[in-house]
């Protein structure tokens, strides 16, 4: 049915490749491209020989001309960007030049500023409309599935949504004293930034990790959750009409936070260049180089994740509450695709977003976040492709 160019060869990209190969009727051909072509070749060697034809390519995704040349050579129907968020705009530029649909899992952020917002990518809307192609932003889990969950709730259960609390909980244990479950540079930038939430039309800022609650999550139990800013808050505040309050919460162990505090205090999480023996280095990038590769955590990680949305609003003039969530088992993910659940919960939705574009179900010219499309085919695909969701119509609410 179609061809996909997958840019990236890390943990999430590996899941995307596995899932594309599990769906050869949709993904007849894929090309895996990365700066490190050996990683692409390893994936091809592992998964080649099936019905999905696999090519590999060396690619510097910071170089728009290189991306354009590869797209023109391979001629994909869609580009799945699972590289770094810093590279979103160069890849979008290449898609515009070549007239190819675009999917990513996280919003663009400039390398020198930890700033998470959609303004840069939303600015492409008119150009994608004129080109007649679709850019699907944030088709991971959060952002991604959490937006689809909200759109599904809005379509089927609410006349008005007033409050959304997104809770992302990882109860997995990889056995290391300190490691991050996805790209350390992106992860630590996100966590050490100031928190922010939306209430009554305004954005309220908090000090990093200063807002803490305990929430009892299905299948993993009570966990400390901390308020963060996450990019889907921005798009949901625009696209869910009438919403009054949106917050994002994530779990962290005391051990993780203790290590992070020490690293922060000694300057290892800084993105400001320093001079070391005549060379300019960025401490956070050096820290990334010495921490375990998230793609290596799969065989070590046990436990489960629970990510979902607690929603309050009105139906037929009466207050209504709703909680929709997914529980994912790290060991089951590794047994299926060789990756832990953090990569799995991001990679599966990326594949689904690309699949819906190829099928023509989520395809219209312009730049869109996932909640702007019909949620039903995505929700159906989640159940079919490894991320089944559950519902609770009387959840415990967050104050």
TrEMBL record:
Against InterPro entries, the record matches this protein to: NAD(P)-bd_dom_sf, Sacchrp_dh-like_C, Sacchrp_dh_NADP-bd
Domain named Saccharopine dehydrogenase-like C-terminal: residues: 140-387
* Pfam families xref list: Sacchrp_dh_C, Sacchrp_dh_NADP
Q: Which residues form the Saccharopine dehydrogenase NADP binding domain?
A: 5-136
Superkingdom? Bacteria
The protein's name in its UniProt record: Saccharopine dehydrogenase family protein
């Amino acid at each position: 049915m179609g061809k996909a160019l997958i840019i990236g060869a890390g943990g999430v990209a590996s899941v995307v490749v596995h899932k594309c190969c599990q769906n050869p009727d949709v993904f007849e051909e894929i090309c895996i491209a990365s700066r490190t072509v050996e990683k692409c070749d390893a994936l091809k060697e592992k998964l080649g020989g099936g019905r999905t034809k696999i090519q590999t390519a060396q690619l510097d995704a910071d170089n728009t001309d290189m991306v354009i040349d590869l797209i023109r050579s391979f001629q994909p129907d869609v580009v799945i960007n699972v590289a770094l968020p810093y590279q979103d705009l160069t890849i979008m530029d290449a898609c515009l030049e070549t007239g190819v649909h675009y999917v990513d899992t996280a919003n663009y952020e400039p390398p020198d500023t930890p700033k998470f917002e959609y303004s840069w990518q939303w600015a492409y809307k008119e150009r994608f409309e004129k080109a007649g192609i679709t850019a699907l932003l944030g088709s991971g889990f959060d952002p991604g599935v959490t937006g689809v969950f909200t759109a599904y709730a809005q379509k089927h259960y609410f006349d008005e949504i007033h409050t959304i609390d997104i809770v992302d909980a990882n109860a997995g244990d990889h056995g290391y004293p300190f490691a991050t479950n996805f790209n350390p540079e992106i992860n630590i930038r996100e966590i050490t930034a100031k928190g922010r939430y939306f209430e009554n039309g305004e954005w309220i800022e908090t000090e990093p990790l200063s807002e803490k609650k305990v929430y009892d999550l299905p299948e993993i139990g009570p966990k400390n959750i901390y308020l963060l800013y996450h990019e889907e808050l921005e798009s949901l505040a625009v696209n869910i009409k009438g919403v009054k309050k949106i917050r994002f919460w994530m779990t962290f162990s005391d051990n993780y936070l203790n290590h992070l505090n020490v690293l922060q205090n000694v300057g290892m999480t800084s993105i400001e260049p320093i001079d070391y023996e005549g060379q300019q280095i960025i401490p956070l990038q050096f820290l990334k180089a010495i921490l375990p590769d998230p793609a290596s955590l799969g065989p070590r990680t046990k436990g489960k994740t629970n990510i979902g949305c607690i929603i309050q609003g009105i139906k037929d003039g009466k207050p209504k509450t709703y909680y929709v969530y997914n529980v994912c088992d790290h060991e089951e993910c590794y047994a299926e695709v060789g990756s832990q659940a953090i990569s799995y919960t991001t990679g599966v939705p990326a594949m689904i977003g690309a699949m819906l574009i190829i099928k023509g179900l989520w395809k219209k010219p312009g730049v869109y976040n996932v909640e702007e499309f019909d949620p039903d085919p995505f929700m159906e695909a989640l159940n079919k492709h490894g991320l089944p969701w559950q519902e609770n119509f009387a959840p415990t609410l967050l104050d």
